[in-house]
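Risk register update: the risk of archive-format incompatibility is retired. Evidence:
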Amino acid sequence: MNKKHITHILIFLIIIKNVFTQSIFSKTHNVENVIDYWTQEKMLNAIPMFSSIEESTSNNENGRLLTSVSYSVHLLTVGKLFFTLSGKARVCTASVIDTSDGNTGITAAHCLYSKEGEYSTNVIFAPGYNNGKPSALGKIRVIGLNVPKSFIKWRVDDYAVIKFDYPGKLQLQTGSFAWGLTPPSPVSIAIFGYPYNGAIVNCPKDGKNCCVWRGYSTLEFLEFTKSTLAWRVPLNIGSGASGGPWVIKNNPPNYLGYLIGVTAFHNRKKGIYNEYAYAMNFTLIRTLIGWP
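Archived output:
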């Protein structure tokens, strides 16, 4: 066997190894005209993404004992994520997380990658979106998406990160959520999002304002995987809130809170709704934020 053939075999083996060992899939975008693409009318008419629905065999009756207080809030760290997927203008919730580059956000993976294998395009982030309009920070272009391989292959780990095209560090303007802390269960949390429906009380549910639900969440094994952990709260957050941050300790030094998950999916059994956020694998998070 000559050296040329050996070289080709080695290259092939390296490619095969990368395909089966890489933990994320990345996508970059040409964003030259994306700001003009998102007119005010198109933003207002964007279709809210539904969180995924998984059937449950559990009643979760104890969920009714958890209390909540909710209201509208104006926070620059959280905003609306606008994108095109399956040929339609759509919207989710996203937030800014603490990273060394200062230009990284997080949302639900199902907002960035469809079951048909399509990545979202024309992606922008509107931090502090309020009363149907972007804040003074305007519309921030998203130039990169990192989606976990585990989501693409098995539809678990429904969270992904986005890369902002911003001069300087966006997190210095918006604040950020820390991450890397797993609290004992149950834990008091705040969930942020831009719902168009759902069960959050004292929330306009018009997609124009950020709302927050406060209550207790429990960490449980998911019945459809038997080995995957997720945080649960006893209500339906609502469409448009997918990707919204689940946060503990709202006022630690230097941060607005610690992120433990993002709104991923809900289910209903005998009239009882539950919403879930996958427990984060922080080793995977470190890989996701390691932009090339």
